[in-house]
Amino acid sequence: MKILITGNMGYVGPCLVRHLRNRYPDAVLVGLDMGYFANCLTAETMLPECRVDLQFFSDMRHLPAESLKDVDAVVHLAAISNDPMGNTFEDVTYDINFHSSVELARQAKAAGAKAFVYASSCSMYGSAEDSARDENSPLNPLTAYAKSKVSSEIGLKPLSDDAFKITSLRFSTACGMSERLRLDLVLNDFVAGAVASKKITILSDGSPWRPLININDMARAIDWALFREPANGGNFLAVNVGSDEWNYQVKDLAEAVAKVIPEVEISINADAQPDKRSYRVNFDLFKTLAPDHQPQVDVITTVKALKHGLETMGFKDSNFRQSRFMRLRVLTDLRDTGLLNDRLEWTHKIKKQGGF
């Protein structure tokens, strides 16, 4: 089994690679990543990419043909990965998240791959507070990121057939400790604030709903999607991934963190403009199709692991929202220093240094 993992040098990628390496020690794991966040490492003792057999440093918009050679399956994580980045780099978001995703699937199918797993998002439901949304509910994407995920699913579906299984995993909001930590995710943000300054600052009024999933459970869901039989969901499957019990209001997440980390002050912005990105999600279909791959890591366990990980790093940055653990900050710094252009392509300066 040879598996190509795009975006393996991001937040979820190292966890997924570790999971697949442990589960399938004889598999050939191939990574492909642009390398934007290569230096955003936590206090790890080894480079996560040591777990792959081959690493490509490549732009999704210009795939090297050899990256798909003899590949049996593709896990597509690579994306401009959140709303702030999507809003700042809107055209690039559509190009990378949508056009390049469909083209990758087309090329993978032509190269003989049998399975394609796409990391989609529950954010495509947008504003959905009245009832929990299932896979048949209307989509209401509010941001460039969410719209790109909807467009990708539409573009991917016609490529599926009896010989090419496509699974679009509509993930809940990710959380948890990673070798390449992100703090621009709601629960991670709250734990970072609690550890660094004993303060949790909620930028909204705390009322929006979010479903959550730990990245270790994301890896388990991807494992299931790689090897599911087409009879279990069809040649093309779009499925919500998470747990009904882990639909939380933002203010309740802050309270959960305060239970683990005592003497924390919670600040809510009561005057904030309403956050329309509020949705609850129904996960019955995933529970039916993947009963042995249901989420196992709850919010309290996740908070404890994040606290331990941050403390191990010696994390004390109360201004972390301006740090390298915020993905938009990394991209804008790379662009402002001339290492990336406005299309988020590495410039000739990198090439002259022999980087990519």
Instruction: Assign a percent range to the helix content.
Output: 25-40%
- Stretches with pLDDT under 50, minimum 5 residues: 352-356
Number of alpha- plus pi-helical segments: 11
By secondary-structure content and strand pairing, the structural class works out as alpha/beta
Rg of Cα set: 19 Å
Domain unit count: 1
Task: Specify the CATH architecture.
Answer: 3-Layer(aba) Sandwich
| CATH domain fold name | Rossmann fold
Quaternary organisation of the protein chains: single chain
Tell me the series of helices and strands, N- to C-terminal.
EHEEEHHEEHEEHEEHEEHEEHHHH
| Termini gap | 28 Å
Strand order of the largest sheet: 3-2-1-4-5-7-11
Let me know the number of strands: 14
Gross morphology: globular
Biggest sheet character: 7 strands, parallel
Structural write-up:
The chain has 356 residues and is α/β, with parallel strands linked by helices. Helices cover 34% and strands 20% of the residues. The protein has helices spanning 13-23, 83-88, 90-110, 144-156, 186-197, 215-227, 250-260, 284-289, 299-312, 327-336, 348-352; strands spanning 2-6, 28-33, 54-57, 73-76, 115-121, 127-133, 165-171, 173-175, 199-202, 209-214, 236-241, 247-249, 265-268, 278-281. It has a seven-stranded parallel sheet, with helices on both faces. β1 (2-6), α1 (13-23) and β2 (28-33) form a beta-alpha-beta unit. α3 runs parallel beside α4 (144-156) and α7 crosses α9 (299-312). The longest helix is centred in the N-terminal third of the chain and has 21 residues, at 90-110.
